[in-house]
Design a protein that fits this description.
Blueprint lengths: L8 H4 L8 H11 L1 H13 L6 H15 L3 H22 L6 H25 L5 H24 L22 H18 L3 H14 L2 H17 L3 H22 L3 H16 L4 H5 L3 H14 L3 H6 L13 H9 L1 H17 L4 H16 L7 H26 L1
Helix pairs in contact: 2-4, 3-7, 4-6, 5-6, 6-19, 7-9, 7-19, 8-9, 8-10, 8-19, 10-11, 10-18, 16-17, 17-18
Amino acid sequence: MKYRFLNKPILQKKHISFTNTLDYTIYLFLLFFIFIDWITGIALQSGFLSIGVPYKIFLMMLIFLGIKSEKKIVLLLYFVAAFFLSSFAYFFQISIDTSSAQATLLKTMMLPFLSIYLEDTYKSIPQGKYILKQLCTINAIIIIFNQMLGILGYGNSTYGGTGGTGIKGFFYDGNAITVVCFCLFVFFYSFEKNRPLSLLLFFSAFLLGTKTSVLAIALYFFTINYLSVTRKRKILILLVFLCFIFLIFYLINYTKIFAYHIATMQRLHKAFDGHILSMLLSGRNEALKTQYIYYKEHFSITNFFWGTGGSFNNELIELDFFDTFFSYGLIFCIPITLNYLYYTIHNRTNKKLLIFNIMIILITFTSGHVWYNTATALFYVINNIYNKVEKNEIRCMEKY
């Protein structure tokens, strides 16, 4: 009975129809989300201005207009009010670059805007699953295409610019793309069961050469498969994982990027007197201690609620939660944290989503590049609502 509905026209239609022009416009903006980041990377590397910021500001305005739930508009109004109040507070402090602070705050606001809009819009239309799949597919192809160009020698390296190590192609922030690759890998491997595309995404992440890109995907892949098999087969999974580790160590001797990471680890090991945690976190925990001491010495009610506009001690820790709290205060830090906790708790019965959400939180607290990465926000939300959209689509087909 279930398969009969696969022949219904609603799933065969190649043309996507929306109930209004606004939703279709937002869909087109999201469809080219990664492409705009790609063009922005080319522009910035060529000395031109970024087109990404105005593009995403306009997109957020469209999303705000597209929200249909009156109750959830209240939440969005909170962020809008907080944004303008923060901007007003920063304007009177000479040491703060107000425009830079505003741009960063807008990046953090993308997550709640997208989560409210996508969940309300796509779970209420029959084509929701197909549309979300198309959004992920087109953006994944752009990333893979970029990495292929990188192999051919176009673009820049992840570390060290042209002629350095790792391949990020024309993207400006290689670390940000690593988390996007992880999100898309989870989508195609766990939800769409598209092995060829998930393999290409893993290869793209491998080419990026960051620790997060390889370890996140490898750990997720191992954990999901380990928890999904019988006790006897768990041993086989462990052996495969160990073989993968040995393969990585073997590649260290033959690839430039792994040699780079080993040299970095040795340098950090020496710099932090053998402290393992400091070495693994690249000294972020030490930076956190320094920032905390500075924060206590300069504590004020204003800083507690509004932060310092991104100029806190003139240094980023690269731990998203603490960077947001110190720089933009409790008024932004708590709602964003609750957004991540909501999906983690709400989807706790789905093993694949639970592991994915826990790993995203771990990345947030260990390497950053999540809260301020608008592309990550998009695919993070899609992963978390895809199951809801799929269930609604099945109900629509049964009615049909």
